[in-house]
Design brief:
Blueprint: H1 5-14, H2 18-29, E1 35-36, H3 37-44, H4 48-60, E2 64-69, E3 72-77, H5 79-95
Antiparallel strand pairs: 1-3, 2-3
Helix pairs in contact: 3-4
Length: 100
C-alpha cells in the first residue's frame, strides 16, 4: 500500500498548531454550514489577520474549503479529503507487519 507522504506532511504541519486545531474543532462543532473569519477569530481569541494566515494553511492542506459570498469568505470542513488522508495512513499502519 502506498501513501502520499507529501500530502501527509502538509496535513500534519497544518494540524501542528494549537490555534489551527482549535479552528478545526470550531468548524466541526459549529451548527452553521459555513463559518466566516469573524467566527474563527472569536472562538480562538486571535486577530483577523492571524486567523486568515491559519485558514490559508488549513485550506492548502485540504482540511478546509472556502466559498466567497460577496465580500465575505466562508469556510467549511473538507471532511472527505481529510478522512481519506488519515484513513490511508491508518491502513498503511495496519498493513505493516509490525502492527498487532
Amino acid at each position: 500500500m502506498k501513501i502520499d507522504l507529501t500530502k501527509l506532511t502538509t496535513l500534519f504541519k497544518a494540524l501542528s498548531d494549537e490555534n489551527r486545531l482549535k479552528m478545526l474543532a470550531h468548524v466541526c462543532n459549529c451548527k452553521e454550514t459555513n463559518v466566516n473569519v469573524g467566527s474563527f477569530a472569536s472562538c480562538c481569541d486571535i486577530d483577523f489577520s492571524v486567523v486568515s494566515r491559519h485558514l490559508s494553511k488549513l485550506k492548502s492542506a485540504g482540511v478546509l474549503r472556502s466559498v466567497k459570498k460577496g465580500k465575505e469568505v466562508f469556510y467549511d470542513l473538507e471532511g472527505k479529503e481529510l478522512a481519506k488522508q488519515l484513513r490511508a495512513l491508518a491502513d498503511f499502519i495496519e498493513s505493516s507487519n509490525k502492527c498487532c
